[in-house]
Design goal:
heterodimer; A: 329 residues; alpha+beta; Uridine Diphospho-n-acetylenolpyruvylglucosamine Reductase, domain 2; Uridine Diphospho-n-acetylenolpyruvylglucosamine Reductase, domain 3; Enolase-like, domain 1; 3 domains; five-stranded antiparallel beta sheet; four-stranded antiparallel beta sheet; 12 helices; globular; B: 692 residues; Aldehyde Oxidoreductase, domain 4; five-stranded mixed beta sheet; 14 helices
């Protein structure tokens, strides 16, 4: 770990100004990812601005039924919130599927969105990684890539986004509220994370110094019939091999509304627009679910060790839709 | 044998050190109170083979707070290279990726680590080879395998008998490289005071650390003092002296008068603290149609480091498990540019019995027999290899008792037939065995003072309960209450103790205490004067040459397998063991279910993934190297047969540290087959293997 300056922010605008002014300054939330990276030498900030004490810890109902989640709301608190559990169960379930109790008690909403890939090569400063050192090469593409992407990857990077929460937020059409030097801007979650392309070092569309202040969930009736399933190597405390967030509304035996996002498949939470399009208005049957999964996974490009993700993603989506169908009826 | 009258032993008793540990006041090695500590952080090689061409320590040396930077250029010279793993910073050669090539001593841990990152090495890189496979043309037969067993054995003509058998099973099983990863990392504080070295160490044997460190540094053993009262798990990885011990001692020479503290990071423990070799095991079983074995052939390929040999005894349990007139076992090694493999809980039995007990399950299917019945039909009357009578063999009783408790008779043998809410279920069984070891070389002393007996022996408590169990044994040996015993362990100032390994600790140390108590009473009678003292060594067992002495057990597992995702979850697990007298039921159950949990973890989770291009364990942290979590360990229980083994030790015990893991992975793999109809022969059984 390299020496660094530490400041505790008392005001969001001041924190933004402070970090914006220093190219190698970072915000500190729960610290569950950044501090690891500082220990491992992945991150070497000169200035750490602690925003965890800013008054961004509220979960508020907005007029019209939307919900505003403060950036500093801890994952545990968000998962346990009554509104979230009843109106957006997929989000509560996704949060509880992530990390461990101890980590969820520390991790924040904004920090969860901003956590970086757990690609083992990214996390090891002794091996090449384009995300860590642009231009140095990707060790994973010809290496051990069981955990890696099958959708949307590039020759420069095949890493996946590790968050569970973000997968649920992508399915729920959430919006990220960001404060920058020019004021506030709003970014749909599905546009917040980037595919790696030729600049895998950039994972989000945030500019340096921009601070997430909140995440907003729209009023979304279909979300009441939603669920999250995470396939993992052990019963707890493992990143997703594949995960699915889905919301399903059936009317007269047909799919009236549907939201689907995958985790563990891509560099960002993967909103399954093709599957949704295939399902809207289709009969709520196993055959429709199979077709929807096939449509979404048609472009999958597995690597040497992760071909299993294709049937796993297909089966998990069908299982979850079946489960939601049974619950709805 | 003159048996101990059981008053305190056999009784459930809380851990004497439990309260200290719960309160966080039991001092582990890193927490020992020392004045003005300095901190050590190593620098590791980033190539797997070659030479260090140059090493630039100037930036590290300039950092404020750095006390010393040592490399092979300036490190103090060692005296003995008998163990190449311990030849630390003595040459420019690199034998594996992650080897120590330098180290920084600094005023704080943070400065030491920061400075270590500033050390720059240039290498002359040589092509490395870490490719483990059974197809290599350079596999070789070691002179012997671990614990001194023969490399190969042959009885009858196994090949011919197999070829002529009515039912033949020929299958290849593999187990991955695994790492012990005790919760407490490998830790040493080294302090030189004139020519005397004190090591506060996390070790399974203070005396062997003293012996090895003294020899390596060219000191007399009396110059080295090793202290290790509490150890946070070892599982074999702290059984041997490793390179970090030597590194700390060398670094402390460059910081005179300072106690130099070193704790390996979790990532470093994937390189510097030993590992279980991967294995590829071809098993051939030939049997009659009614399941009587005629041929057993077990051929093992495993790895060793090129610079120092370690040969695991993987096929050894096959030599005694089942009756068959024709048998053959083989061990072959691939010498690779990897760190030295070492002991990991039940080395040999753990991977070997995975293969053997899955093979038996496959043979049962091929013969149309119940897997328990198949094992019963092949129960040997005496040790098949030596012909010696069994000291105590209750495998069949363990299987029967387990079957009764587990509800085995309700099992429908057909695989892939039971499903509940999308989860397939199945149950499986496997046998377990582990040798009874008593090691020679321990000594206990007893001194009577102020109404209590001071019992002293340099034994180790790895968190397993040695403090408590030896106190119970001493109380019965001296015919007093446990409260009258004052035990001291974990220090080379105490009489010599052998390693906490091979499940031999309580047997070996306990027997020394019993012998010392007898000597004490012989000399001083039942009303000893204050200051009365006596000591004695662990004696040689009179029956050791006559009988084949082993523990046995039966493992039962029920699993659920998600038909859509391939996820495997344990539903319940039961182990039934025959291990002689249980000294303390509470501690014993904890040991046994701990072993079973490690077996569960082996079955479903653990795998150190080698990137052959880099010579490097890719998943070298706890996010990547999966160990069973609490959520994975459900409804798991261990019981034992009531037994007093009067051929083993005066306590009637045989040792329980390792048998709990043996066979556990096979029982789970067999349950997965029963649930799904899929036979997974390569551990761990991860969801991907069940989906393709």
């Amino acid at each position: 770990m390299s020496p660094f300056e530490y400041e505790r922010a008392t005001d969001a605008s001041a924190a933004v100004a402070r970090v914006s002014a220093r190219p190698n300054a970072v915000f500190l939330g729960g610290g569950t990812n950044l501090v690891d990276h500082m220990r491992l030498g992945i991150a070497r900030p000169e200035l750490v601005v602690d925003v965890s004490r800013l008054p961004l810890r509220a979960i508020e109902r907005l007029p019209g039924g939307a919900v505003r989640i403060g950036a500093g709301v801890r994952n545990s608190d968000l998962a346990a919130d009554g509104t979230i559990r009843s109106q957006y169960p997929v989000l509560s379930q996704a949060l509880l599927a992530g990390a461990s109790g101890q980590l969820r008690n520390l991790a924040t909403t904004a920090g969860n969105l901003l956590q970086r890939t757990r690609c083992a090569y990214f996390q090891d400063v002794t091996v090449p990684c384009n995300k860590r050192e642009p231009g140095s090469g990707c060790s994973a593409i010809e290496g051990h890539n069981r955990d890696h992407a099958i959708l949307g990857a590039s020759q420069q990077c095949v890493a996946v986004h590790p968050s569970d929460m973000a997968v649920a937020l992508a399915a729920l059409d959430a919006t990220v509220v960001v404060l920058g030097r020019q004021g506030e801007r709003r970014i749909p979650v599905v546009e917040f994370h980037r595919l790696p392309g030729s600049s895998p070092q950039r994972e989000t569309v945030l500019e340096h110094g921009e601070l997430i202040t909140a995440v907003e969930l729209p009023a979304l009736p279909v979300a009441q019939h939603s669920a999250y399933y995470k396939v993992r190597d052990r019963a707890s405390y493992a990143f997703a091999l594949v995960s699915v967030a889905a919301a399903l509304q059936i009317s007269d035996g047909r799919v009236a509304d549907v939201r689907i996002a995958f985790g563990g498949l891509a560099h960002k939470p993967w909103r399954a627009v093709r599957a949704e399009a295939s399902l809207r208005g289709a009969p709520a049957t196993e055959e429709s679910y199979r077709r929807a999964a096939a449509a979404e996974l048609a472009d999958a490009r597995p690597l040497k060790h992760n071909a299993f993700k294709v049937p796993m993603a297909r089966n998990t989506l069908q299982m979850l839709l079946r489960h939601l169908t049974a619950g709805v009826r | 044998m003159d048996m101990l009258e059981a008053r305190a032993i056999g009784v459930d008793r809380e851990r004497m050190d439990g309260k200290l540990k719960v309160m966080g006041t039991a001092p582990y090695a890193f927490e020992q109170s020392v004045d003005r500590p300095a901190y050590l952080h190593p620098v590791q090689s980033t190539i797997a083979r070659g030479r260090i061409h140059s090493i630039d320590t100037s930036a590290a040396g300039r950092l404020e707070g750095v006390i010393a930077v040592i490399t092979h250029w300036n490190a103090p010279r060692l005296a003995s290279d008998g163990n190449r793993e311990l030849w630390v910073l003595q040459s420019n050669e690199v034998h594996f990726r992650g080897q120590f090539i330098a180290a920084v001593v600094a005023e704080t841990l943070e400065v030491a680590r920061c400075a270590a990152e500033l050390v720059r090495a240039e290498y002359e890189t040589a092509a490395h080879d870490v490719g483990f496979s059974a197809g290599r043309d350079d596999l070789y037969a070691p002179e012997a395998v671990n614990a001194g067993y023969p490399t190969d054995t042959d009885q009858g003509d196994a090949e011919a008998a197999f070829n002529g058998a009515e039912v033949r099973l020929d299958a290849t099983y593999s187990t991955p490289m695994e790492h012990n990863q005790p919760m407490e990392p490998h830790t040493t504080i080294a302090l030189w005071e004139s020519d005397k070295l004190t090591l506060y160490d996390s070790t399974q044997s203070v005396h062997s650390v003293r012996t090895v460190v003294a020899k390596t540094l060219g000191l007399r053993p009396e110059q080295v003092h090793v202290v290790s009262p509490y150890v946070g798990g070892g599982f074999g990885s702290k059984g041997e002296t490793h390179a970090h011990n030597i590194l700390a001692a060398l670094a402390a020479l460059r910081a005179p008068g300072r106690a130099v503290k070193l704790a390996l990071t979790r990532q470093q423990m994937f390189t510097l603290a030993g590992h279980r070799t991967p294995t590829i095991q071809r098993f051939r079983l030939g049997a009659t149609r009614d399941g009587h074995l005629n041929a057993i052939i077990h051929e093992v390929v495993e790895q060793t480091s090129r610079f120092q040999e370690f040969a695991e005894q993987t096929a050894v349990p096959t030599r005694l498990m089942y009756a068959a007139p024709n048998r053959r076992t083989r061990h072959r090694l691939a010498a690779l540019d990897v760190p030295k493999p070492s002991w990991m809980r039940a080395p040999g039995e753990t991977p070997g019995m995975f293969a053997g007990e899955v093979a038996m399950d496959e043979l049962a299917v091929a013969c149309g027999l119940d897997p328990i019945e198949l094992r019963v039909r092949n129960e040997p009357e005496h040790d098949p290899e030596s012909g010696s009578p069994w000291g105590s063999r209750h495998l069949v009783e363990c299987l029967r008792e387990g079957a009764r408790r587990f509800g085995w008779s309700r099992r429908d043998p057909r695989p892939g037939r039971r499903s509940e809410d999308g989860w397939l279920t199945g149950i499986g069984v496997a046998s377990a065995t582990y040798p009874r070891y008593v090691l020679m070389g321990s000594r206990a002393s007893i001194r009577f003072d102020e109404g209590r007996y001071e019992v002293r022996i340099g034994a180790a408590d790895l968190g397993t309960g040695t403090w408590t169990a030896l106190t119970q044994i001493a109380a019965d040996a001296l015919e007093c209450s446990p409260e009258a015993i004052h035990l001291e362990i974990g220090d080379t100032d105490l009489p010599n103790a052998t390693v906490a390994g091979g499940s031999s600790g309580i047997s070996s140390w306990g027997w020394a205490i019993v012998a010392a108590a007898q000597e004490f009473r012989r000399r001083h009678g039942s009303r000893p004067p204050a200051g009365a003292e006596a000591s004695a060594d662990t004696p040689e067992g009179a029956d050791d040459e006559t009988f084949a002495q082993h523990s046995f057990g039966a493992q039962f597992a029920e699993v659920r397998v998600n038909a859509a995702t391939g996820e495997v979850r344990l539903a319940r697990m039961l182990g039934v063991f025959s291990a002689g007298r249980i000294i303390n039921p509470r501690l014993a159950r904890s040991q046994l279910i701990g072993g079973m949990t490690m077996g569960l973890s082996m079955a479903l989770h653990e795998e150190s993934v080698m990137d052959e291009r880099l010579g490097h364990i890719v998943n070298h942290d706890f996010a990547g190297y999966h160990i069973a979590t609490n959520a994975d360990v459900v409804n798991l229980d261990a019981v034992w047969l009531e037994e007093i083994d009067d051929r083993s030790t005066p306590m009637g015990s045989r040792g329980i540290g390792e048998i709990g893991i043996v066979g556990a992975a096979a029982a789970i793999a067999n349950a997965v087959y029963h649930a799904t109809g899929k036979r997974i022969r390569a551990l761990p059984i991860t969801p991907d293997k069940l989906l393709t």
